[in-house]
Amino acid sequence: MFTNATARGVDPFPAPRHDWSLAEIIALYRQPLNDLLHRAQSAHRHCFDPNEIQLSTLLNIKSGGCPEDCAYCPQSVRYKTGVESEELMSCEQVLEQAQRAKASGASRFCMGAAWRSPKDKDIDKVAEMIAGVKHLGLETCVTLGMLRPGQPERLKHAGLDYYNHNLDTSESFYGRIISTRTYQDRLDTLQRVRAAGINVCCGGIIGMGESVDDRAALLQTLACLPQHPESVPINTLVRVTGTPLAGQQETDPIELVRTVATARILMPRAYVRLSAGRTEMSDATQALCFYAGANSIFYGEKLLTTDNPQFSKDQSLFERLGLRASTDIASGETPAVQNF
Ligand code: SAM
Ligand code: DTB
Ligand code: SF4
């Protein structure tokens, strides 16, 4: 006898929507946690293996000295955070780190640069790095700031799989965090990246003093893009001494779990990444985030300038939770060594 909803002709998982209202998202976010988690985990299981986590490794290829004023960021030249301004790394240095990431089991290698926007000669150098990383059989991702017309095409040509560019928060809270570029600037870069055929990695930060409505509005903007981002990083603010946000209150872990679960429901096919902030999170919080639908992490002992959990700590967490590293690589071979 057919009893489930699909068999009765009612698909419990209709095609992903792009028309969510703010009120609907707030209602999802605020519902009793068990109901929210159940719905998020059901959506997750419909689209993904619930025990598989995608591993991305980050490398800061150009550290510090950034002219922008993002209030959370230790790399802005405006704040005294102790982060030195460095030149762009050489291609050889980058490829050495990419080899290590591959040997550790990462499937994606993300290169970040503390730029407002890259110059054309920077694009040439980064293109060489992308081609080299791709040749190693890793997925490639870069985050270089705002891109001008024509630049995404050159990155795509070099073999770029993903471009990370975060909206960070809601449009209305945004002005409290950044004054040197507009929300629309960010949307324009995202649109150019998408038009060049590059996968979009776009998310935000929680714990900057924003309200639940701001978190819902950020998720609404992401979920109402013509195509959902393929990756959605959810960062928890890392409170770096010297930045204007250093004195923010600690983020309530339950709010993080709610944000992850809501992102999973709104963008069921996206990789939702539990991003910055994991060193300060308990194992239980991370486990709840994985249950809520997070299926990607930054793997490696450093983010850009701040610490990320030790390899051994993540390996033990994965073992205890019965999680595996995903070996899916959209564009190449699987990693040579699997640590999990
Ligand atoms: N400069 C480029 C840009 O802003 O697009 C690329 C690098 S930037 C550091 C990438 C992202 O890292 C930011 O958009 C923000 O979401 C995140 N981030 C930076 N500092 C952070 C912090 N202290 N805590 C959490 N996330 C942070
Ligand atoms: C993203 O969403 N988070 C990463 C990556 N994209 C580039 C960066 C987190 C940075 C945390 C602070 C730091 O280490 O400087
Ligand atoms: Fe610069 Fe990016 Fe940091 Fe903003 S987030 S200050 S643009 S490095």
Quick structural summary:
This protein is of the alpha/beta class.
Q: How many separate helices?
A: 11
Q: Give the termini separation.
A: 40 Å
pLDDT < 50 runs, ≥5 residues: 1-7, 331-340
The count of β-strands is 10
Query: Could you say which small molecules are bound to this protein?
Result: S-adenosylmethionine, 6-(5-methyl-2-OXO-imidazolidin-4-yl)-hexanoic acid, iron/sulfur cluster
* Biggest β-sheet strands, sense, barrel: 10 strands, parallel
Radius of gyration: 19 Å
Structural class call reads alpha/beta
Outline: globular
Q: Assess the beta-strand content as a share of residues.
A: 5-15%
What proportion of the residues is helical, as a percent range?
25-40%
The arrangement of helices and strands along the chain is HHEHEHEHEHHEEHEHEHEHE
Task: State mean pLDDT (0 to 100 scale).
Answer: 93
Can you describe what's shown?
With 340 residues, the chain is of the alpha/beta class. Helix content is 37%, strand content 14%. Strands 1, 2, 3, 4, 5, 6, 7, 8, 9 and 10 form a ten-stranded parallel sheet that branches. Strand 2, helix 4 (120-135) and strand 3 form a beta-alpha-beta unit. The radius of gyration is 19 Å and the shape is globular. The model is unreliable at 1-7 and 331-340 (pLDDT under 50). 6-(5-methyl-2-OXO-imidazolidin-4-yl)-hexanoic acid is lined by residues 58, 74, 112, 143, 164, 166, 203, 233, 235, 238, 275-276, 303-306.
List keywords for this structure.
binds S-adenosylmethionine; disordered C terminus; single chain; binds iron/sulfur cluster; alpha/beta; 14% strand; binds 6-(5-methyl-2-OXO-imidazolidin-4-yl)-hexanoic acid; 10-stranded parallel beta sheet; 340 residues
